[in-house]
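Action item from last week, closing it out:
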Amino acid sequence: MQRGSDRLSRHRDDEMKHELQGLLRSGHPTRAEEWNDPEPTADDDPEIAGGPVAPRAGASLEAVRLELARSLGRHSFPASAGDLAHVLRRENAPDALVEAVQRLPRKEHHANLEELARALTRGTGTAPAGGPR
C-alpha cells in the first residue's frame, strides 16, 4: 500500500497520533515536563489577530496609525477626509475605518498619517502620555 510519504514509517505515524490524542482532546498541554510546554504571551507582546482596528474608545493611537498605514501611503497626503476615504475604500480597508474617516470634517486637510490618526482618536481620549505635539 502506497502512503504518499516515505519520511515516517506507518508505526511511527500511529505512535505520533497517539501522543497527540490527549492534547487534541483536552485543549491544554498534557506533558509532565514544564520546559516542554509552550510559553504564554508576555504582557508587553503585541496583540495578534485581533481583527481590524477601528478608531473607537479603547483603540490606541498606534493601533489606528498601523491600520491606516496598511492602506495609505505617502503619496496619499496631503488630502481631505473625503479623498482619504476614497483611497481607503479603493484599497479595501475595513468599513469601520472608512466610515470613521468619512465622519471627519470635509474641509479639514491632513498632511500625513500621524495627523490623520490623531484626528481619528481625538474624541476617544486615547492620546499618548506625552500629550499632543
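Closing note: The chain has five helices and two strands.
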